[in-house]
């Protein structure tokens, strides 16, 4: 991957991020411009870290305060609440203090608090430190109107001092971008395994020994929190030195998480796990699994999703299996990604802060999904209903568009629709493009998902599309057709070259490998109503639609991995809309040992 084989050079200065970028000749790819708008009506004035700012700004209008603009923002009524995060780094780098230690606050910072109080504005303290740092941020918690902590130990320590603080889930995740790598213009091999323990490997030979033991798997080793000087790096073993990349910035780390498979952490009983928990949650939210060597506390949130190995040899076995079975590995990390996005969502964190201003603010509903199935086969209606009803995403509706000139043919035993299910009829001369447009017009969802009647979808298909759409505010979500099931001879095959990590890109890049298969299209409904599919195309309607999006250029697209959906193929290719389907014996297709049910059911696949 781009960071490896870094030449240390002869400098005696610390390995600053700029040096790393220059030595590695790597720049973090630019993210597509998200269309996602903040949903909360409360306006925050924020002081704290970049991570804290990113956490809030996509959930609520959030303004970074400086000594120059703070007075105007407060007295002008431009913000509704003041949020101060107890963090050692200052986003704007203009306050000249560490907000972790409020006793060091200067006149300008204390004046800010007084002005907010005079304006009747809630003052909110977000305290990210652990129990050992409670004495540092206790003065800030005392002066604030509302204090939030992310660890039991910190809450207990403040309680002993007579200070009340609310407990929230630790290191709530900013949903935007997490789980999606920015598309690279040039090819680069991903880092399979990542460790952030470079600094600790230098300090503790036992940590170095653990990491040295997994070197055959090719991990990338870096420090995200500390500057590592050249003379200290020189104390590493030769194998670790070959993998070390120095100190990475938060943007570089975000990219590493989104392109790595496993984050390896070494648990140490003498270290509070706050930063480790935050890194682990960020990693899993970016579809990077977490493996921990050593013992962690029963209250540690990582127990809900991380693999804990008391013995390093067990870690080696796990990494070996992870390397050998790419499909199961990606299915596993996606399950964890879904869980973390549900349990540690940034919108829940922002809502807690917003309710300090207005207790009656309602939680944000997820996007509503309109599932549209174009079909001309009455005998497939039962399978369509079964697939739709098995979906895990709650807020959904189904519109079956029957391409027929004889509606009476559809009076089948399966035509017992329930709430949020409807069937509409479309003359046979119209193609699937017209059917999708009709379904979008009849539906009420935020997004329209296509689910073909002759393909196979897992129960989390709609949920994963909706999570991706919500995270990026995407206009289009989809995936490559990676898996094919040949019904006549019960064969399941796949195309490894199309099995990519989830990626975000602009629609101008659709022609440059950004194509997503029509059977998986999930499109913003407003976009379909404005500029939908071609009505009269019976073949290639999805490709023609993508060409439209490519011409617009700046729309946000998300390509998920190939899991959750399987293309069905029959020997009579004339019954398929896309009639140039390749055979299962094509050189690009590989046999898959897992049965179809297991591929669509993550629990079965990972057994």
What does this structure look like?
The protein has 607 residues and is α/β, with parallel strands linked by helices. The chain has a 9-stranded mixed beta sheet, sandwiched between helices. The longest helix has 18 residues, at 326-343. 47% of the residues are buried. Mean pLDDT is 84; it is low at 1-25 and 577-581.
List the helices and strands and how they pair.
Layout lengths: L16 H8 L19 E4 L2 H8 L4 E3 L5 H6 L5 E6 L20 H12 L4 E5 L6 H10 L2 E4 L2 H9 L5 E2 L13 E2 L10 E3 L2 H6 L1 H8 L6 E5 L6 H4 L4 H4 L2 E4 L2 H10 L2 E5 L7 H12 L3 E5 L13 E3 L2 H13 L1 H18 L2 H9 L14 E7 L5 H9 L6 E8 L17 E6 L5 H11 L4 E4 L5 E2 L3 H12 L3 E4 L3 E4 L4 E4 L8 E4 L3 H5 L7 E3 H6 L10 H12 L3 E5 L4 E5 L20 E2 L4 H5 L1 H4 L2
Parallel strand pairs: 1-2, 1-3, 3-4, 4-5, 5-6, 7-22, 8-9, 8-11, 9-10, 11-12, 12-13, 14-15, 14-17, 15-16, 19-24, 20-25
Antiparallel strand pairs: 17-23, 18-25, 19-23, 20-21, 21-26, 22-24
Name the features.
alpha/beta; nine-stranded mixed sheet; 607 residues; six-stranded parallel sheet
The quaternary structure here is: single chain
Spans of at least 5 consecutive residues whose pLDDT stays below 50 are 1-25, 577-581
Helix content: 25-40%
Read across the widest sheet, the strand sequence of neighbours is: 7-22-24-19-23-17-14-15-16
Q: Which descriptor suits the 3D outline?
A: globular
Radius of gyration: 26 Å
How widely separated are the two ends?
Answer: 31 Å
Q: Counting H and I runs of at least 4 residues, what is the number of helices?
A: 23
Structural class: alpha/beta
User: Could you report the average pLDDT, rounded to the nearest whole number?
Assistant: 84
Which percent range describes the beta-strand content?
15-25%
Major sheet size, sense and barrel closure: 9 strands, mixed
How many runs of DSSP E, i.e. beta strands? 26
């Amino acid at each position: 991957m781009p960071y490896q084989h870094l030449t240390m050079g002869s400098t005696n200065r610390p390995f600053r991020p700029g040096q790393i970028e220059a030595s590695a000749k790597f720049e973090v790819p630019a993210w597509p411009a998200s269309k996602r708008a903040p949903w909360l009506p409360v306006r925050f004035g924020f002081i704290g870290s970049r991570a804290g700012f990113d956490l809030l700004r996509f959930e609520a209008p959030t303004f970074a305060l400086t000594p120059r603009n703070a007075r105007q923002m407060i007295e002008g009524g431009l913000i509704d609440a003041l949020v101060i995060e107890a963090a050692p780094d200052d986003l704007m780098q203009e306050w000249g203090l560490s907000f972790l230690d409020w006793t060091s606050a200067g006149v300008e910072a204390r004046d800010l608090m007084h002005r907010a109080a005079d304006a009747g504005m809630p003052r909110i303290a977000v305290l990210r430190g652990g129990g050992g740092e409670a004495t540092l941020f206790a003065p800030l918690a005392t002066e604030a109107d509302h204090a939030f902590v992310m660890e039991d130990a910190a809450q207990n320590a403040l309680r002993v001092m007579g200070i009340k603080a609310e407990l929230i889930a630790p290191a709530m995740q900013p949903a935007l971008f997490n789980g999606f790598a920015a598309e690279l213009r040039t090819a680069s091999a991903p880092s399979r395994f990542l460790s952030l323990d470079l600094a600790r490997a230098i300090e503790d030979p036992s940590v170095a020994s653990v990491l040295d033991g997994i070197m055959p798997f090719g991990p990338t080793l870096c420090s995200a929190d500390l500057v590592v000087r050249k003379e200290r790096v020189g104390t590493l073993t030769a194998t670790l030195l070959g993998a070390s990349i120095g100190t990475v910035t938060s943007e570089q780390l975000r990219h590493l998480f989104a392109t790595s498979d496993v984050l390896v952490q070494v648990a140490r009983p003498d270290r509070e796990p706050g930063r480790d928990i935050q890194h682990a949650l960020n990693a899993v939210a970016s579809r990077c699994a977490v493996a921990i060597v050593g013992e962690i506390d029963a209250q540690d949130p990582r127990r809900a999703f991380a693999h804990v190995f008391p013995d390093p040899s067990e870690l080696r076995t796990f990494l070996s299996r992870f390397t050998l079975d790419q499909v199961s590995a990606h299915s596993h990390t996606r399950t964890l990604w879904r869980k973390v996005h549900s349990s540690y969502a940034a919108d829940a964190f922002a809502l807690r802060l917003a309710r300090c201003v207005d207790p009656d603010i309602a939680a944000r509903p997820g996007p509503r999904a309109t599932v549209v199935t174009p079909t001309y086969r009455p005998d497939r209606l039962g399978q369509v209903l079964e697939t739709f009803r098995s979906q895990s995403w709650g807020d959904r509706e189904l519109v079956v568009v029957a391409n027929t000139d004889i509606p009476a043919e559809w009076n089948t035993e399966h035509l017992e629709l329930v709430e949020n299910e409807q069937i509409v009829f479309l003359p046979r001369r119209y193609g699937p493009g017209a059917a999708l447009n009709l379904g979008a017009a009849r539906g009420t969802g935020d997004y329209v998902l296509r689910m073909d009647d002759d393909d196979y979808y897992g129960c989390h298909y709609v949920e994963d599309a909706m999570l991706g759409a919500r995270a990026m505010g995407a206009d289009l979500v989809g995936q490559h057709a990676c898996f094919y099931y040949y019904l006549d001879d019960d064969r399941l095959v796949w195309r490894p070259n199309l099995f990519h990590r989830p990626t975000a890109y602009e629609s101008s890049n659709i022609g440059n490998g950004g194509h997503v298969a029509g059977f998986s299209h999930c499109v913003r409904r407003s976009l379909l109503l404005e500029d939908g599919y071609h009505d009269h195309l019976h073949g290639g309607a999805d490709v023609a639609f993508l060409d439209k999006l490519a011409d617009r250029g700046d729309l946000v697209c998300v390509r998920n991995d190939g899991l959750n959906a399987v293309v069905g193929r029959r020997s009579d290719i004339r019954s398929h809309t896309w009639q140039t389907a390749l055979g299962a014996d094509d050189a690009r297709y590989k046999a898959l040992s897992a049965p179809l049910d297991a591929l669509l059911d993550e629990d079965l696949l990972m057994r």
